[in-house]
Amino acid sequence: MDLTLTEHGFLVNSADWNEEVATELARLNAIVLTPEHWEIMCFMRDYYAQFNYLPNTRIFVKAVANKFGTQKGNSPYLQRLFPESPLKITCLLAGLPKPPTCL
Fold this sequence. Notes:
Number of strands: 0
Radius of gyration: 13 Å
Low-confidence stretches: none
CATH architecture: Orthogonal Bundle
CATH superfamily: DsrC protein, C-terminal domain
Shape: globular
Largest sheet: none
Mean pLDDT: 93
């Protein structure tokens, strides 16, 4: 698959995103996608479509908790799914821009 990515691994054109692209981005980041990953990724795509901006990590975790409950809306759960940086990796795999608060 030929993907055009930024220097940080994000899609240059988020309109190119689909399930196959997400799976390839996950593979490139050593993540095997599960239904739990898809749930958070799709939530984040919906969030971005609704608000047209990406939250900081604290607001991201709170928004996940509001939608799915505290069992999923907590840092340890999200860290297990998206190691390194849950917000950054969620956005990367969901075909969204790099969050401005992420290094």
